[in-house]
Design brief:
By secondary structure, the protein is mainly alpha-helical. Helix content is about 70%, strand content about 5%.
């Protein structure tokens, strides 16, 4: 297994990700133990902080483990991400650089389109929720219209929070994409295109092959003159 030929931070030197994997594992265990001890002492705020640290380290440990598997160059010269190791053999899903480029463009367009749509919808819902909260005293007078307004504002606040969470996830994905993070769908294609023989090389190889075949044919005629 090797790193990325482009030598980016995310894909070069898989050994550093093995160390990071162990670090995150230790952080998970230490965070869970600290949260348990602090909760037993009724110190709930620091316990919640350590629990959050332990939970946040779980996906980081998983990602570091995948990065530690590294990359391989197949027989066609294409870079392939190793998915698992079985019997000392690297297993991967065969892809090409062109396929990864197409996926990068399609995923980027999808992410940015939905980021703009969800962002605009979150602003609208936030405005509705704020308007309901700002007029809470006027709505809270026991009337049916006021109850409907409060309920509508509550729904706007709830769905606005959900959509805001989606927006934050999309923003995080965009930041990872811009930083060259590779363990994601539609990651940047950082490696150079595999070498393909040009027209001159193909012509030279063809001429060499024709000359070799002509030489073999002439040698056979010399050894077997009766076949002429």
């Amino acid at each position: 297994m090797t790193g990325d030929p482009a030598g980016s931070f995310w894909t070069s030197n898989p050994a550093k990700w093995r160390w990071a994997c162990w670090l995150f594992r230790c952080l998970i265990v230490a965070g869970a133990f600290a949260a348990w001890e602090l909760a037993a002492q009724s110190r709930y705020v620091p316990a919640a902080v350590w629990a959050f640290v332990a939970l946040a380290a779980i996906p980081l440990q998983w990602s570091a483990k995948r990065h530690a598997l590294g990359w391989v160059i197949d027989e066609t010269g294409e870079r392939q991400k190793v998915e698992a190791i079985r019997g000392g053999k690297a297993l991967y899903t065969p892809t090409s650089r062109q396929m990864r480029e197409i996926e990068e463009v399609s995923v980027s367009v999808w992410r940015r389109t939905h980021l703009a749509r969800f962002g605009a919808l979150a602003l609208v819902l936030a405005g509705i929720a704020y308007a309901a909260y700002d007029n809470l005293e006027a709505l809270n007078r026991g009337s049916l219209l006021g109850a409907i307004g409060i309920g509508f504002g509550g729904l706007a606040a709830f769905f606005g929070a959900v959509i805001l969470l989606l927006v934050l996830i999309l923003v995080a994905e965009e930041l990872l994409y811009q930083c060259g993070f590779q363990d994601m769908k539609g990651a940047k294609v950082l490696d150079a295109p595999p070498h393909r023989p040009g027209l001159r090389e193909v012509a030279a190889q063809k001429a060499h092959g024709d000359a070799r075949l002509a030489g073999e044919h002439e040698a056979q005629n010399i050894l077997n003159p009766r076949r002429r």
